[in-house]
Amino acid sequence: MGLNLEITLGKIKLNSPLILCSGIFGFGNENIKFIDERKIGAIVTKTITYEPWPGNPQPRIYETNYGMINRIGLQNPGVFYFMRNIFPKLRKKYKRVFVSISGRSEKEFVEIIKIVSKKRIDAIELNLSCPNFENEKKMISQSSELTFKIVKSVKNETDIPVIVKLTPNVTEIKEIAISAEEGGADILSLINTIKGLAVDFKKMRVIDGGLSGPSIKPVGLKCVYDVYKVVNIPIIGMGGITCGLDAIEYFLVGASAIGIGSGFYSNPQIIDDIYKTLKNFLRKNKFKSIREMIGLLNEKKENF
Question: Which residues contact 62 (CB under 8 A, 6 or more apart)?
Answer without folding.
Answer: 68, 69, 70, 71, 198, 200, 207, 209
